[in-house]
Design a protein that fits this description.
Number of strands: 7
Order of helices and strands: HHHHEEHHEEHHHEEEHH
Strand order of the largest sheet: 4-3-7-6-5
Largest sheet: 5 strands, antiparallel
CATH superfamily of the largest domain: GAF domain
CATH architecture of the largest domain: 2-Layer Sandwich
Number of domains: 2
Number of helices: 11
Structural class: alpha+beta
Helix content: 40-55%
CATH topology of the largest domain: Beta-Lactamase
Shape: elongated
Strand content: 15-25%
CATH class of the largest domain: Alpha Beta
Radius of gyration: 22 Å
């Protein structure tokens, strides 16, 4: 293969080179070695080594430890793909999962999505006796109080968590926590047990549970929640709600993964 003109290569911006590497790796579903990338990109191996190092550090690529390191698309790129999901399809899949969860749990169920600086509801299903307050598509949920928001924020990289915290944290009820350090400790508990709780923190008579939607390669960008009056939710063990929410989360994740293939 003839080498490209040096001046043409020099005219390429660093950003174009990074995009080129990402595209090359994305096209190879089984991964590529450094040598493979250098041959396909027609670039010197030292240059490719430098570019891939930056992409690895940023999470755009990941490398599997083998005799010859295999590069694959990393979580940063997968997150971009999921966040750019076609809105109508996203809402349809979310609504299907919400409907199934509400039918099983007999309470209002909803799916929320991580934004750049907030967490917003994308779908909701309410049975006849469901509790309707606080959960409307498009509504901005309080990060420190809403179970669905906690279920997402708890699984974000630590350096990004503070970006979502807006001090002072508002108090909605006597049960609302407004201490950032306490909130961060609660996020650790949420990660450990695998679900989040809102115990009268937005409304004195309302509880909520939420679980994260784990997307392979992308992490947690969505959560599924259930809310209702304390008098009703306390009639069942926590596991009853968590099991139903996890089933809905798995259904939603499968739909998104199938579409992204």
């Amino acid at each position: 293969m003839p080498k490209k003109d040096l001046q043409d290569d020099e005219r390429k911006s660093p950003f174009e080179r990074y995009l080129s590497i990402i595209e090359i790796v994305a096209a190879a579903h089984d991964g590529l070695t450094l040598t493979d990338i250098a041959k396909i990109a027609d670039l010197p191996k030292p240059t490719v080594h430098r570019l891939t190092r930056v992409l690895l550090d940023s999470g755009a690529l990941v490398a599997e430890d083998r005799r010859q390191k295999q590069f694959r698309i990393g979580p940063r790129i997968w997150r971009v793909l999921y966040l750019g999901f076609e809105p109508d399809s996203l809402v349809r899949y979310a609504q299907m999962a919400c409907d199934a969860a509400a039918s099983r749990l007999k309470e209002t169920c909803y799916i929320v999505r991580l934004g750049r600086t907030d967490v917003r509801t994308v779908a909701r299903a309410t049975p006849d006796q469901g509790y309707r307050l606080h959960v409307y598509p498009g509504s901005d949920l309080p990060i420190h109080a809403a179970a669905s928001a906690k279920a997402i924020i708890a699984f974000q990289p630590e350096k990004e968590v503070m970006r979502y915290i807006r001090e002072p944290l508002p108090r909605f009820t006597p049960y609302t926590n407004t201490d950032v350090s306490v909130f961060l400790a609660e996020l650790k508990k949420t990660r450990k047990r695998g679900y989040a709780i809102c115990d009268r923190e937005i409304d004195e008579h309302v509880m909520a549970y939420a679980v994260p939607v784990h997307l392979p390669n992308a992490g947690v960008l969505f959560s599924v929640g259930v809310t209702g009056p304390c008098s009703r939710l306390l009639q069942h063990p926590v596991a009853f709600y968590i099991d139903g929410l996890k089933e809905a989360a798995d259904q939603f994740a499968r739909a998104l993964q199938t579409t992204q293939r």
